Amino acid sequence: xxxxxxxxxxxxxxxxxxxxxxxxxxxxxxxxxxxxxxxxxxxxxxxxxxxxxxxxxxxxxxxxxxxxxxxxxxxxxxxxxxxxxxxxxxxxxxxxxxxxxxxxxxxxxxxxxxxxxxxxxxxxxxxxxxxxxxxxxxxxxxxxxxxxxxxxxxxxxxxxxxxxxxxxxxxxxxxxxxxxxxxxxxxxxxxxx
Length: 193
Ligand code: ZN
Description:
Elements: H1 23-38, E1 43-45, E2 55-58, E3 71-82, E4 85-89, E5 99-103, E6 106-112, E7 118-124, H2 125-138, H3 149-171, H4 178-192
Antiparallel strand pairs: 1-2, 2-3, 3-6, 4-5, 6-7
Bound molecules: zinc ion.
């Protein structure tokens, strides 16, 4: 398992809800937490590790020594958005790119955990921002899609560098083509969603 970078096609995949939690999924979640900590992140969505599942992990402390703050969101649904807040965001799949993003300040999010229990979270501040950023990933959306024209212009050069790097690796056949990635996603999706 590894983190894929913009403009990997899985980052643009809209995932369907998972049907069940099994032992394999529990192991994937453990691996996702480990990767997230390794890369100093506070959240990581399944799309970012090339999996078409409606699932993300988060620990808003970003600290493996604080496992009490670890949360797993399966099939999350956001409701009751309130207020508006602006803060800087980055993404483990878009290295080196940071920008101010406006989002609702408070949300309610319902999701299943690894035991199959449905939990309703009342969130604001950083946790609310992470949950919105990660739920966007499951819909194939990235924080750069939420920037103003000037905000996007400021990061365009960095994005173009990432695009060149990615297509270069594809042309040298170091990584799968878009068609291969999309075919694999369809196979995985058929088994679990
Ligand atoms: Zn992200």
